[in-house]
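Incident review: delayed structure delivery

Summary: a single-chain prediction request sat in the queue longer than the usual turnaround. Root cause was a stuck worker, restarted by the on-call engineer. No data loss occurred. The affected request and its eventual output are reproduced below so the record is complete for anyone auditing the incident later.

Affected input:
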Amino acid sequence: QVQLVESGGGLVQAGGSLRLSCTASGSIFSINRMGWYRQAPGKQRELVAAITSGGSTNYADDMKGRFTISRDNAKNTVYLQMNSLKPEDTAVYYCHAEITYGHIGTLRASTYWGQGTQVTVSS
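Output delivered after worker restart:
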């Protein structure tokens, strides 16, 4: 069984910063792509940023220059540093990971989502 646990959300004023963390645990063999998505009320879930196991990153256009995604492969953890936050960044942020799990001979690959963490930016 694999689980993603997020932390770091909260309430912050516009212009402020927050750092989100997401740690994967369980019978993990390897983790390929990890990323952050967000969903605001009444809107579809959208990609915020993603990072491969090799460190290649991609960002949604509005997040470039403000958000930074990073990961610690030894800790199976991905981070999202969010700076210069705007009220329109208010949403539930979800961690996502592509994980190969199990043991040699019985490996499986699947995608997983965290439970979500609320980020609220006040004006």
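Verification: The chain has a mean pLDDT of 96.
Action items: add queue-age alerting; document worker restart procedure.
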